[in-house]
From TrEMBL:
This is CN hydrolase domain-containing protein. The lineage of its organism: Eukaryota, Viridiplantae, Streptophyta, Embryophyta, Tracheophyta. InterPro entries: C-N_Hydrolase, C-N_Hydrolase_sf, Nit1/2_C-N_Hydrolase. It comes from the Eukaryota. Keywords: Hydrolase, Signal.
Length: 327
């Protein structure tokens, strides 16, 4: 079937060379959480579920950020949203080095407990990307994506694997590893909204993570809470997100920080939801405004795309592929 005909037939909404040994070491280091059975994944493919993606400008004030998150959650609940996704560093963005580490707490600490209560009161699942979780010592934190269910329970958490150590052209030097310890566990979890794959921001540039979530752990929805810089966002944000959706045939929900947080830091914004055909189905009209956009996730569309273009059956390369490189 021609690609144009295939696209027309799909019920989609409009709106090297590392060695085999190195690959084996990576597989050994990375653990896996939340393996789904085929029946569990299939059971999630029911009626469409309304989800929301938040856009906000966090600042160096935990209470002010919570007030914004609480307001948006209540507004989303009134709009029928059952799953609301917040961006990276939703609860705090400091202006001085070391502020976030001093603020970092365990997941059962008072900051996260406020959000657990918010989820329970609103009867809504929350994706909270990039929480400053207390690290292995007083000088380190984890950048943790926390998933809370509608009873207020922390259902799962993912510690960001790929840390942002980058000299952004025309911008500034970022060195996340100076104060953050990288995670070592890939996380996928079942939910009423499908099989969720949890990631954070800079992970977006590493497609192998999303390939594992899709082909090894049956993810149907990929969550990418972020705080992309203005420079990198203008160049790559939407392109990378649509690519991840297309190559995995998953929905992608990407909540973004937007605008100036302080004199030193500015984020690109543009929170969006993308369907498994790569079409943007929801976004805020203003890339820098605070608010949320809504879409109805229909997992039958995931199955339709995967049935008509069965790349899971056609893919050839994995970690066991033989290399022609001679040692």
């Amino acid at each position: 079937m021609a690609l144009a005909s295939l696209a027309a037939s799909l019920p989609i909404a409009a709106s090297a060379s590392a060695s085999a040994a190195a690959a084996a070491r990576f597989r050994f280091r990375i653990g896996f959480r939340g393996m789904a059975s085929a029946s569990a994944v299939g059971a999630a493919a029911g009626a469409p579920a309304r989800v929301g993606v938040v856009q906000m400008t966090s600042v160096g004030d935990v209470d002010a950020n919570y007030a914004t998150c609480s307001r948006l959650t209540k507004e989303a609940a009134a709009s029928g949203v059952k799953f609301l996704c917040f961006p990276e560093v939703f609860s705090f963005i400091g202006s001085k080095d070391g502020e976030s580490v001093k603020l970092a707490e365990p997941l059962d600490g008072p900051i996260m407990q406020r959000y657990c209560s918010l989820a329970k009161e609103s009867g809504m699942w929350l994706s909270l990307g990039g929480f400053q979780e207390k690290g292995p010592d007083d000088s380190r934190q984890y950048n943790t994506h926390v998933l809370i269910d509608d009873s207020g329970k922390v259902r799962s958490s993912y510690r960001k694997i790929h840390l942002f150590d980058v000299d952004v052209p025309g911008n500034m030097v970022y060195k996340e590893s100076c104060f953050t310890t990288a995670g070592d566990t890939i996380v996928a979890v079942d939910s009423p909204f499908g099989r969720l794959g949890l990631t954070v921001c800079y992970d977006l540039r590493f497609p192998e993570l999303y390939q594992i979530l899709r082909f090894k752990h049956q993810a149907q929805v990929l969550l990418v809470p972020s705080a992309f810089t203005k420079v990198t966002g203008e160049a790559h944000w939407e392109i990378l997100l649509r690519a991840r959706a297309i190559e995995t045939q998953c929905y992608v929900i990407a909540a973004a920080q937007a605008g100036k947080h302080n004199e030193k830091r500015e984020s690109y914004g543009d929170s969006i939801i993308i369907d498994p055909w790569g079409t943007v189905v929801a976004r805020l009209p203003d890339r820098l405004s605070t608010g949320f956009a809504v879409a109805d996730l229909d997992l039958s569309k995931v199955e339709a795309v995967r049935t008509r273009m069965p790349i899971a059956e056609h893919r050839k390369f994995d970690s066991d592929w033989k290399s022609s490189t001679k040692q």
